[in-house]
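Table S7 (text form). Paired inputs.
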Amino acid sequence: MVTATGGRAAWEAEHTGHLSGRVSAFGLSGTIEAWTARPDRSASATKLGPFTLLEGMDGAAAWRTDPSGKLQMLDGRDLVRARASVWFENENYLASDHGGGQIRWIATEKDSAGTFDVLEITPPAGDSRRYAFDAATGLLVRVTLKEDQQSALSTLSDYRPAGSRKVAYVTHTAIVNMPANALTVTLDSIEVNVPVDASHFAPPRTAAPGVRWLKQDGIARLAFQYRGRHVWLRASINGAQPADFLFDTGASITILDSAYAAKMGIETTGKMDAMGAGSSGGASFATLKSLRVAGDDGDGVELSDQKIGVLSVNGVLAPFFWRDCAGVLGYGFISQFVNEIDFDADTLVLRDPKSFEYHGAGTMIPMTLAGTVPVVRLKLDGSIEGDYRLDVGSNSTVDVHGPFAKKHALEGTTGKSLEVTGAGFGGQFTSRVVRMKRIEIGPYGWDRPIVSLSGATTGALASEDYAGNIGNQILERFKCTLDYDRHQVYLEPGQKYREPDHFSRAGVLLIKVNGVVRAGEVLKGSPAASAGLRKDDEVLSIDGKAALSCEPDDLARLFEEGAEGRKVVFEIKRGDKVKKLKVKLKEMI
């Protein structure tokens, strides 16, 4: 490679670079400009459709901006990956000492395109990459990178002179199993050893989206509905009537349901494959003139020029919640504020990060970000410790990712388990529910928690980098204050702190589809199954009350906290027959 691109002297003489070109991805087209300085500085500015994305590293700190322009300083695994990327961009592996990295021979591979020498190159820190060099020319032609669950294959071509060396002018990157996310960069110009101002690599002073405080500058208090162990807020887009939105720290971008967006006349552009809890699904993009989140008293906030995603969420979520979901308030909204979630008072307080000072009685827990999702340390059974994402969009206690559960043999050491079904953006997935001995976060802990061992093979719950997700059955025990700018979480125990974890004593999940209540899932060996209830049975009434007039939360409370031995009468319809079944509640786990 060194010889093929110009020789050792040419490589060693090269110190800085400035390139510009065109980029196409997600059905959008745009431009890219980038700067490099060996050994450890890099920056780029990409304009793609409605988005302007900036990222860089100044040798120590790494940063990026989100689609709405907010600056995020990277830490944790994201910082390690950023350093590795800059190391590769600057071709440090071509140094005589390989830039402190390691190189391992893999194999010689042949296909219809030719013969390739494949090496595994590992930077001083971060994930290794597989580099395939054309055996005939010595030029790098393919790079394979695996980060967590995603694998990317980049193909390099059109090598031409740039200064004293040859450089690939075209790079096409495909994401495995996500074809809509392919990206092509075509360079128009490359300048070598030109002066590059250090300011390119420093975090920019970007103009984040404008926030208008509707009642009092710097603070807004919003009542929320806590239903189905999810936080629901009323939000208005582009001045329309308010609709129901989920508040979800696990969502990397604010989302509109595709059917709701079409109803509102929202114009979309581009197309991508988006990853949710269960798997992945198709999405497009839009820009909102305004996003207003306000209460009945007029208090709240309004954000302008919000870049959002549009995908189908209501079809998956509505049956579980028995109500429509217009969308999800994600990182683009949430990260603009310090968020105080008071589960006892059903109140969300939004504060200006610039003036925020914590004066509560809680404990500060250090927080990193996994992309856009808060991450904290959590310990299971006194010794099994890992990094867990704080997911206010989950109604679980803890969802342990499959790779982490397998590594620690959790399913085989926790006794009885139950298989259950969950749902996320990408669809449904199965998990096994167990009781473990203890959970601890910082100074807080409690016994016999219910933990879900994820069976998802794709999506966020199959992550290899993180141990799991922390859901609202933990978070509702506290008043939670999330400070994204300072990377801190404050937890203050609330009224539910010492409550035991509950699981259904009936073993049936009721869903509402097309105005009909049905048994969406009946757990094997459960009281509901023993009573003869089957999946897809239409449920007409429960204890003499019409099923359609019941509140899902009231039923969940009955099934979780009803006395063991109590008989709940279900009137069901199966085919043309109507019958009554008596479900005798009992503890299942």
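Next pair, protein 2 of 2.
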Amino acid sequence: MSAHQTNHHRASDHEPELEIYDTTLRDGAQAEDVSFSVEDKIRIALKLDELGIPFIEGGWPGANPKDIEFFQTIKTVPLQTARIVAFGSTRKASNTVSTDPNLKALLDAGTETVTLFGKSWTLHVTDALGTTLAKNLELIADSIAYLRDQGRRVFYDAEHFFDGFKTDPDYALHSILRAAQAGAERIILCDTNGGSLPWEIQEIFSLVKRECPVPLGIHAHNDAELAVANSLVAVQAGAVQIQGTINGIGERCGNANLCSILANLELKMGHSVLGKGRLSQLRNVSNFVAEIANLQPYKRQAYVGETAFAHKGGVHIHAVQKNPVTYEHVVPESVGNQRRVLISDNSGRSALLTKIRSFGLSLPKDHPRLNVLLDKMKILEHEGFQFEGAEGSFELLVRKALGSHQPSFDLLGFRIIVEKRHADETPISEATIMVKVGEVVEHTAAVGRGPVNALDNALRKALEHFYPQLQDVKLLDYKVRVLAGNHGTGSKVRVLIESGDQKGSWGTIGVSENIIEASWQALADSIEYRLLRDERCSDEGDARTGGT
């Protein structure tokens, strides 16, 4: 028996629990203005794993080289709770299962579980696939059976199921029964066009549940602003698996928003789906994904938005200070958010203290430096800093404010020259930098593919003599966002940099009207954080060995 078969056997020994299936990396990546790199997808997968998501759909390995690389890379990444799932379609009518490139790519992805989608709506069979209704049933059945024979668990996404059921209920039902007979372990009913209403979902789901012998799931799109409602109604009707994306990102109007679904399931419907205490990470994950996707977080998003628990009206503030239940339907901290009284200087204090303690720093609630740090944060946030996705910079900010960190180097100055010699040639970038480490001044220069890359190369070159471990640090990603467009090219920009080495990755941030200055802030923090990590590990080692 293969490893895949062993895991399948184990999973079938008991009645399945309610399970969350995240498709941010595949369906979410189809959103307008979203383009994840492989490194982005790895970082998000790790964050979802930390949240406790059991299934993460990594992408469509037969669709593009990026997804193929992701599935190869993620095999080397240790995950604690999540299983990576490959997604793809049933075989083409002109191919056999053994020669179909899509099925081969799904197998090559090496995942224990594969999600296969097929057609449930007669319109799509005849107009989109251009085949017969009987042939479509054959494609569904033998594709699933083939993957099962290869030792894979199979989830079957019944695409456009609700529209198909409204048009021809017998055929739609027959299509999923063939999938079940072929060995699919989950049948996910998809509202692909996102136009169904909650009472339609509930009625159809209840009917199908009586006929289908395997557990059902729901995959809803948000074209009628009902994806979350439709998902929750499906749970009431017996859905075992709920699919969606973080922040509801996805094609057209998006997918079902897992942030709202998770909070509603746990806080309103009594389902424990993530594990004890993990729901409190929800806002952090929401903001992290938004930052990596280079999207502005939606301030008014339910549960996790910045203003979800913000109070400004005098009557509201007065009531909330007496009893928060008066104007808050859940405890903000339960989803990792915080109450904000917009005219108060005390907002965010407890959340900040919790974060400080997560860095291994012990600080009493009345410590005077806490107020200094709060004031500093408010100033920086007003200037455009956001530390979600840039925890390296945030920890440095905290440690500097508390006096527990000294810079590893001082910048004395830098200069960048960008020269374009001919109209049809790529510009040449050269950076010169002068830094001071202790009492030693280092002055060096380097070239790069652009001004920021040249500055990064020059900084590394100047410091590697003092800190050889920096040779392992790589700049993995670089994002720029214009914060306000009303000043044209003079607008402030936020630069987010992801750096990494063999032990992990970290994000840093910079904000300025000058893109080079913003980039410098993020680059300098990146180096400082890497050296801080060494310092922290050394301190922990001394503590374990009794050293000083």
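The chain has 18 helices and 16 strands.
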